[in-house]
Specification:
- The chain has about 625 residues and is α/β, with parallel strands linked by helices.
- Helices cover about 50% and strands about 10% of the residues.
- The chain has 25 helices and 15 strands.
- A hairpin with a 4-residue loop joins β11 and β12.
- α4 runs antiparallel to α5 and α9 packs antiparallel against α10.
- The longest helix has 20 residues.
- The radius of gyration is 28 Å and the shape is globular.
């Protein structure tokens, strides 16, 4: 007899409904409890100090459930603050909405500030401004060290730059020390720049206050990455002359970096070592053209003689010896990793050699050898740190088969684990294929919920309305791709298999500026990238326009490799000008560049999210952006 032929008695029907409810609730795999032991204030504080804000929030909520009166409110407010720190404003808003008992004045102020910040993080800047503006300044001043910085952030997000500047100016009175004051000024500069990049006009005529006017004018000319730093400009000097005693003078180098000063002369000689023939010739030619574009901007009086050596025809060590014999005072290259290793094997270099690749991680460079590369492993480490800062500790990775993918995911996993995260699983895919449905469904465990549905339908003898679900313990997805085309295939398929709600991160090569329509396929993807690829910075935009006009049709000038070559020239100029290489600072096309004590060139990148086919800047997090 089939289930459909059985007449279910009322009691049994109720039992089945209970069973149905329990099974439906289990259709997603639930994450393990945040803590297996009873929550205490010490454990919650420890989790908060350790950066595990979601765990701290959950423990504070647990503590609130066992308290009453003002003690309960304190725990609820602490939980809401931790949810904000975990970048989960909806959870903070949920707690605030449930606060209906009488509160002391400081608690009421804290509730209002949390509510305003929650609205800000939900991209409701206008509502956030309305909420924070409802707090009287006399009341907000009692929490000035937090109230005024928050008011500044909200005002700038709500396109009210004058109000934001005034909030910062008042907030300086509550800074505990000069370091905090400098940090507040730096944050204001970043917010003004971001407002300008969104198209907000920073008009000095909007205020009669000279300090406010100075901030507005500085925000209008400030550039995070100038790119054309070889050519330079006089904006900083003009601003300083106009506002000689302005508080922003101490951060002026951040706003308008000084141009590079070339100490070389026309009698100097530079050797450029690249594989100009052979399998890597196309990449080498683009790097050479980028180097040439920067070289051509050097004043004629300080432009050294430049000679290129083909390392496919002449072994790198021999090319370096030839260049030295010809009187070269600086060598840029080689490019290929094996060639860099060969140069390292030759020992110390009597003249600086800026290699365009990295040695293996376990190998130290000899003196005189410096390393500059667009390293996917370093990007992977940045991504791991950003995930943790965003409050995402557990997740999965999609990895291309082969040695390259293995290196990238290994670097990512090591950094993630060191920061307290956990890679739950990884799935390898074939980059040559186009259908990744099997790999995605397997790692998301979508089939698990479908199997539970089938068992339940068989038990009840009826068809259920059902939508498959992914496993519920995933807080992030890391999509590792060698080419943009793979990202354009993977991201839509992740969304198709119900993973569109999971924060998804990628390497910068997921984006190429070749097709706006094709790039809409990666909308929602977050990644770190170089200024050259982001069209919202005045200095970089103007430099891109000039280079595009000069090189259009002659080279792959819009590529990352072109920017890499350009910055190799900028580094050569800066390194030649400084005896102490710790002083080398280049506002480059590939990022803000500086050297670490081991001679590696590090890059500060910009975090963006693909929206409507274009990269849009993300707000800064506490994650370091340095490779």
């Amino acid at each position: 007899m089939s289930m459909k032929q059985i007449r279910i008695r009322p009691a049994l029907r109720r039992h089945c409904l209970v069973l149905l409810t329990a099974l439906l609730a289990s259709c997603a795999i639930l994450p393990p409890p945040v803590s297996q032991r009873a929550a205490t204030e010490d454990s919650a504080e420890s989790a908060a100090h350790g950066g595990d804000h979601a765990r701290a929030a959950t423990q504070y909520e647990s503590l609130a459930a066992s308290r009453t009166g003002t003690a309960q409110v304190d725990m609820q407010l602490s939980a809401a603050r931790e949810w904000l720190a975990a970048n989960r404003p909806q959870d903070a808003a949920r707690i605030i909405a449930a606060l209906n008992q009488p509160m002391a004045a400081p608690q009421s102020l804290e509730r209002s500030m949390i509510e305003a910040e929650s609205l800000l993080l939900q991209n409701r800047a206008a509502d956030a401004w309305q909420r924070i503006n409802a707090i009287p300044d006399s009341t907000g001043a009692t929490a000035g060290s937090r109230y005024y910085p928050l008011r500044m952030r909200i005002a700038l997000a709500a396109d009210r730059p004058v109000d934001g500047i005034r909030a910062e100016m008042t907030g300086e009175h509550y800074a505990l020390n000069p370091t905090e004051r400098t940090q507040l000024r730096t944050q204001l500069l970043q917010l003004l720049r971001a407002a300008r990049d969104r198209g907000i006009k920073l008009d000095p005529q909007a205020s009669t206050d000279n300090t406010v006017r100075g901030w507005l004018e500085l925000g209008a000319i400030a550039s995070e990455q100038h790119g054309a730093s070889i050519a330079g400009g006089s904006e900083a000097a003009a601003w300083r002359a106009k506002y000689p005693n302005h508080p922003a003078a101490e951060i002026l180098p951040q706003a308008v970096p000084a141009p590079l000063v070339a100490t070389m002369t026309s009698n100097s000689k530079v050797a450029l070592l690249l594989p100009l023939t052979g399998p890597a010739a196309g990449q080498a030619a683009t790097i050479r053209d980028g180097f040439q574009a920067a070289y051509d901007q050097l004043p004629a009086a300080s432009r050294p003689e430049l000679k290129a050596y083909d390392t496919s025809a002449l072994p790198p060590a021999e090319a370096i010896a030839t260049a030295r014999a010809a009187g070269s005072t600086f060598i840029v290259g080689p490019l290929l990793r094996d060639d860099v290793a060969a140069v390292a094997s030759a020992g110390s270099q009597p003249i600086p050699v800026l290699a365009l690749n990295y040695l293996s991680a376990d190998r130290a460079a000899p003196s005189g050898l410096y390393q500059f590369a667009l390293s996917p492993e370093n990007e992977a480490r940045l991504i791991a740190r950003r995930m943790i800062a965003d409050g995402h500790h557990r997740g999965i990775a999609l990895v291309p088969k082969g040695e390259w993918g293995a290196r990238v995911v290994d670097a990512f996993t090591r950094e993630l684990t060191a920061d307290g995260g956990n890679l739950l699983a990884q799935a390898e895919y074939d980059p040559a294929e186009t259908d990744y449905g099997y790999e995605i469904q397997s790692i998301l465990r979508v089939s698990d919920s479908a199997e539970r549905q089938q068992r339940l339908q068989s038990a009840l003898g009826t068809k259920l309305n059902f939508e498959p679900r992914h496993r519920a313990d995933i807080e992030f997805i890391f999509v590792i791709t060698e080419r943009a085309n793979n990202a354009r295939l993977l991201v839509p398929q992740l969304k198709y298999f119900y993973a569109g709600d999971i924060p998804t991160y990628a390497l910068s090569n997921a984006y190429e500026p070749d097709s706006l329509d094709a790039n809409r396929d990666i909308d929602g993807l977050m990644y770190p990238d170089m200024p050259w690829m982001i069209a919202d910075d005045n200095g970089t935009d103007s430099n891109r326009a000039a280079i595009g006009q000069a090189w259009e049709g002659k080279a792959a000038w819009r590529s990352r490799l072109f920017a890499f070559g350009y910055d190799a020239c900028q580094l050569m100029v800066s390194m030649s000008a400084h005896r102490d290489l710790a002083q080398v600072q280049v506002s480059g096309l590939t990022g803000e560049l500086h050297l670490d004590p081991k001679g590696h060139v590090l890059r500060d990148l910009i975090w963006v999210q693909a929206r409507d086919g274009e990269p849009r800047r993300l707000p800064p997090s506490s994650a370091a952006t340095t490779e």
